[in-house]
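Chapter summary example.
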Amino acid sequence: MTVTPLPLPPAPTNPAMALTSPIYQPAPEGAPADQPRVFAAIANVMRDAMPVGKDQRNEQQNYKFRGIDDVMSAMAGPMRTHGVFILPTIADHQQQRDGKMTRVLITMRYYVYGPAGDCLVTDMPGEAFDYADKATNKAQSAALKYLLFTLFMLPVDGRSIDDGDRHHPEPSEEHRAEQQQRQQRGQQRRQQRGQQPRRSQRAEPGPWENQQQPQQQAPRRDYLTEAHQAKTPDEFAAVRAAAAEAGAPADYLARLDTIAAQKRAAAQPQQTEQQGPAQNAPASPKAAAEQAENALRLAASRANLPTLDADFERVYGLPVDQAPAAQLDAFRQQIEAAAAKGAQQ
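The structure predicted for these 345 residues follows.
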């Protein structure tokens, strides 16, 4: 078996020295030219990523947060679809005792690979406290979470626009002493009952800390698949409305509209066959415009043009659904010609 090492960029002279700027490593020699490079793959992942709301709550310090599990669940599907993966390494690790707690400062170095084998290298800091042995794990989770947020500009649920990370004050000495007394009393009671001890001051509560109020997270919906499976226009309208209510970006909604246009175009030949030869009379201007619009949206989908409506209105000065068939056909021909020229290059 032949083992091929990953194409890594040259490391800094001092491994602990943070990168001053991201590093780009081109694709290895012999990589397929038709494979998208990492920058295009990142853009495709950004287009498919769904919002992540602040659905988790830290009961001890009373603030909401977006958990690392929710963020990874939101990114796993788009990253698999577009062939993107992340290789983490530790560039710097500092650990010290702060009273009874362990403080960890870490610098994670992430290699973001695209389907062609090229990669983007960047550093991300992380910091965490813990009474036991989980400070490094928590610092790594924080670094990965904010890498995904900042690199892929992961949309945030509009209902959680107020960032709870700003409202995380340091407790006073009196509050700490009172909290430690409560923890000691609680630990004594749990030991008497034979229960598992509870860790405090956690950035994200442990599984045993949420037993009083169990919450089941609803599975994340795949609106693109539901749009493909919709059998009627009413079912598609319900799927699109749900995606808009969930905070889907405009280009994501445009992809749903493209799916609807493709389904209408696919259903058009079946209707023509059912009508038979007697229905071959010249179509009305409205029907011709609808047929031309379906063909235009199908061509835009094949050419990966999510800004069709805005581009058309900028050129002709009116929306797509108000344009005559002649203008729609002319714009479609321009898209198909540009796509064919790009395929030849």
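To summarize the output: Residues 158-168 have pLDDT under 50 and may be disordered.
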